[in-house]
Specification:
By secondary structure, the chain is an alpha/beta fold. The protein is 41% helix and 21% strand. It has a four-stranded mixed sheet with strand order 3-6-5-7, sandwiched between helices. α1 packs parallel to α8, α3 runs antiparallel to α4 and α6 crosses α7. The chain is globular, with a radius of gyration of 17 Å.
Length: 237
């Protein structure tokens, strides 16, 4: 298991990483934490080209670190620091050679709610000998180098992964989900249309969620979301 985050993070993100540490202990998995050395593996030209959008370099760095750790481990998992494992007994890795996370994103379209279903890289799993990691990394590096415009934050992450998924139907760990702000609001409220759509469109009820720290309303609000998910999960909503 690989994770990385800044030295100082809000308490609710620390709570997320603690759930991952607990899951690792329970599953007998080694946890490998990266701090200042995280970007050391990224080629210098990629660092320079993504200075205005460093999240792109982050998406590449995680792939390189996974590739490195696969020299020593049969299976390597990446989880973002704001990923909460709130049902550790049911957060089970698939038997596939690799897997990505599932994103069911609920958003407003004018006055109506709609869902956008794709995949994400807040959860990644690769096993030794898989055929996808090298291709994904090479494709990401090549596209970043060839790009002549600005970068969107998800350029080498969910956007590229979803494009590949739409063509090749990548293996997905359905229980490794993604939480949109509207669904977070409904969790705090106790119920709501966004949460109902989210659960209805999910192939499995998530047992872990990326909480999207970049869109967090406030640290206090996100701590409430964390507490409620740890206490109740999603099943009874």
């Amino acid at each position: 298991m690989i994770q990385s985050h800044q030295p100082q993070v809000p308490h609710w993100i620390r709570a997320c990483t603690e759930t991952v540490e607990d899951w690792c202990r329970q599953a007998g998995v080694d946890r490998y934490f990266l701090d200042d050395e995280f970007f050391d593996v990224v080629p210098e030209d990629i660092i320079e080209k993504t200075l205005g959008q460093p999240i792109v370099a982050t998406d590449i760095a995680r792939l390189i670190w996974i590739k490195r750790r696969l020299k020593s481990y049969a299976t390597v998992v990446w989880l973002d620091a704001d990923f909460l494992v709130f049902k550790p007994d049911e957060f089970r890795l698939p038997e596939t050679d690799f897997a990505v996370g599932r994103e069911v994103w609920i958003q407003k379209d004018k006055e109506r709610l709609r869902n956008v279903t794709q995949v994400h890289n807040a959860f990644l799993m690769f096993r030794q000998g898989n055929a996808f990691l090298e291709f994904y990394l090479d494709t990401a590096l090549r596209l970043v180098r060839r790009n002549t415009g600005s970068f969107v934050p998800q350029f080498a992450g969910p956007k590229l992964l979803t494009a590949l998924h739409n063509v090749a139907q990548l293996p997905v760990m359905e229980c490794a989900g993604m939480l949109s702000p509207l669904v977070a609001e409904d969790i705090v409220a106790g119920n709501g249309s966004a949460l109902r759509i989210f659960l209805g469109k999910s192939n499995e009820v998530p047992t872990g969620l990326n909480l999207c720290s970049s869109l967090a309303a406030s640290n206090e609000f996100m701590q409430r979301v964390v507490d409620l998910l740890l206490a109740n999960g999603l099943e009874n909503r």
